[in-house]
Design goal:
Structural class: mainly alpha
Keywords: Cell membrane, Membrane, Transmembrane, Transmembrane helix, Transport
Pfam family, one: BPD_transp_1
Radius of gyration: 26 Å
Main location: membrane
Largest sheet: none
Membrane topology: Multi-pass membrane protein
Strand content: under 5%
Distance between the termini: 25 Å
Number of domains: 2
Subcellular location: Cell membrane
CATH superfamily of the largest domain: MetI-like
């Protein structure tokens, strides 16, 4: 027995040389993943004329903050758009997790009589939808959500694909014996879900929460359809309007006006600056969800 354990330890043991090589490979792979975003940041900080003459370089000859000055010239509009996007993302993610986790838990339990019907109902919505015009009529006219923040939240609150992921996670990761033991002790369904199922489901909920967060943060189409009030325009929609303004000036038939305006507008660097402004805040969401990933690995162990 001792010999078997020693061979297993030798099999899993990595020599110091291989450990260094593997760390170098991991570091190189990490750098390859991070470098595109770093390069976008570098381009956004490059002087527009230098970019036009020298092209894209990692170490530009001249640095400039003109692109960010141009974007921030919108003043309160940019900060208001950030606030709207953050509010919609936070409320929408929480709301989505509540709805989808409850729905997925119900259809994951064999004791639920209508689990088959509601599973098929969710799957059908993945294959068919009413179309853009009926959806617009329902949201804006039937529900009366036009020019409200709920128009940015409710259309993305439910996702059938995420529901199926959570349903599979509940089935494979939440033992039926734990739920039965809770019922034997007299616990109700909501108590079991809140005190037993949710602690066991943190990795799955964190994954779906991250997907929902990215969906809400990057959503611009809902604002295009339902928002006319400039005070409710989210960040992505506002940045698209800035981009459209630049393209309008570029395509202007009045060439003298176009050339005069383009000389004062940093074009390529402004686009990169908008990418940085739209991407940088969402990066901070990853460590938050990663913390729950790590916690979920150690929670909910079944005692025998």
């Amino acid at each position: 027995m001792a010999e078997v354990k020693r061979k297993i330890q030798d099999f899993h043991h990595v020599s110091r040389g291989w450990n260094i090589i593997l760390n170098i490979i991991a570091a190189a792979f990490s750098f390859i993943c991070i470098f595109p975003f770093l390069f976008v940041v570098i381009i956004s900080l490059t002087d527009e004329k230098t970019l036009a003459t020298d092209g894209y370089r990692v170490f530009p000859a001249k640095w400039s903050l003109e692109a960010y000055r141009f974007v921030f010239q919108s003043g309160d509009t940019l900060y208001r758009a950030y606030g709207v996007t953050i509010l919609v993302t936070v409320i929408g993610t929480i709301f989505s997790l509540i709805l989808m986790s409850l729905y997925a838990y119900a259809i994951s339990r064999k004791s639920f009589r209508y689990r088959g019907f509601f599973s098929v109902f969710a799957i059908v919505t993945m294959l068919f939808n009413g179309g853009m015009i009926p959806t617009y009529m329902v949201v804006s006219q039937l529900m009366g959500l036009k020019d409200t923040l709920w128009a940015l939240i409710l259309p993305l609150a439910m996702n059938a694909f995420y529901i199926m992921i959570l349903r599979t996670f509940y089935i494979t990761s939440v033992p039926e014996a734990i739920i039965e033991s809770g019922r034997i002790d007299g616990a109700g369904d909501f108590f079991i879900f809140l005190r037993i199922v949710l602690p066991l489901s943190l990795p799955g909920l964190a994954t779906i929460g991250l997907f929902s967060t990215l969906g809400y943060w990057n959503d611009w189409f809902s604002a295009l359809l339902y928002i006319d009030n400039p005070n409710l325009v989210p960040l992505q929609s506002m940045l698209m309007r800035i981009e459209s303004s630049i393209q309008f000036i570029q395509n202007s038939k009045n060439s003298s006006l176009s050339m005069a305006a383009l000389q004062t507008i940093p074009q390529d660097t402004t686009r990169m600056a908008m990418v940085v402004l739209a991407t940088l805040p969402i990066i901070f969401a990853y460590p938050f969800f990663q913390r729950y990933f790590v916690q979920g690995l150690t929670l909910g162990a079944v005692k025998e």
